# Entry
Amino acid sequence: MPTSSSGVPRLLARAASGQTRRSLLVGFAASGLSACASNPLGGSVRASAQETPGPVASAEFREWVAGFRARALGRGISGATYDRVMAAVVPETSVYKSDKSQPEVQEPIWRYIGRRTGDYNVATGKKRIQEYAALWDRIEAKYGVDRYTLCALWGLESSFGDLVVSAKYMKPVLNCLAALAWGEPRRRSYWETELLNGLIIVDRGWAEPSEMIGSWAGAMGHTQWMPEVWLNMGVDFDGDGKINPFGRPDDALAGTARYMVERGHYRRGEAWGYEVTFGPGFDWSDADGKTQRTIAHWTAHGVRRIDGEAFPDPRSNARIWLPAGAKGPAFALLQNFWAVRSYNPSSKYALAICHLGDKIRGRGEFVRPWPTEEKPLTLVEAQELQERLTALGFDTGGADGRVGEKTQAAVQAWQKSVGFQPADGYPSDKVLERLRGG
Ligand code: CA
# Structure
């Protein structure tokens, strides 16, 4: 592919050298100019008082670097690597506000899925399947992970390695992780561990800090590996002696397949799941995306594949999920759906990947249409729904206006308790109306 062997590294080298050079030029020059800024995530952090001439490593940060050295040596990182890498690190303090943006309206799942499974991704995925036929053969032979699913994951994680698309969001990962380990009070030990993992990667000679460019949270390369994944799940599948998620996609895709097998318990030769339909009088209460029953149990209760085919193995376990409520498409989810979901714990993310994989394979849209006539709740309405449910004793996991799996479970539990039909867990405006009516 055009960007794999030459484009990506060049792009990364360019982006990185600018940052590093600027960092080195500024270096300690402005230390002492730092001021205490309010950390939007709740703590108090040190940040540069000046936006220009560029990022600054404050004296406080340098002290922290000196203090953290023993931890790094304790993890087996050489003093020489630590000193060389950390001397050039300038904490990327913009990370403290990176996860605060929130849309006004919860995006309906059909739009989320639609944006990720559109013509461009299907066509590009088909091209990548052809171009990398030999690589897919090797990965399938070794790990058994379906090439179309893996190709779709690649598409969603990095637009098939086309980092030009996301270049403006990318940052030197060690600068981000250092800032988080130093100044982010929440999950500090997680960030410390990931910073150490990043240093181990450099110590092993797999990559230089200038190549390690990624998201503010530290995800890198074709399939967006955190340092821990790179370190523990990575595979040198192109045999160049290094494990690297940039450049040729071999290591990234093989390591991601390994992840799905070892951490997600992916099963060779099985489907991720099926679109299903229900017989009359179906009891929705187990169709919560969580309750696991055998296929034989579900068929006895009227669940059928919507294409009319038989399920291959009645003994396998499945969960039934209605992502947009009883009016939209419904799915029987098998183990391989959860293997994909293990990579990024969001069911709509996993569904987007499985669906895109199927479309790259040549299948069409889901049979049942999405209920696009449903008006999605606004942020304020969703918060109200969550507050009302919480007040009634149904735990929504907070009232942040984001309708996640916990809120859907609370909606469904409430629906069952008041006899609301169908009890599908879908937070429609009718649910809110009924909650308002008491
Ligand atoms: Ca390699």
About this structure: The radius of gyration is 24 Å. The beta strands are 34-38, 44-48, 171-172, 213-214, 273-278, 292-294, 303-305, 317-321, 330-333.
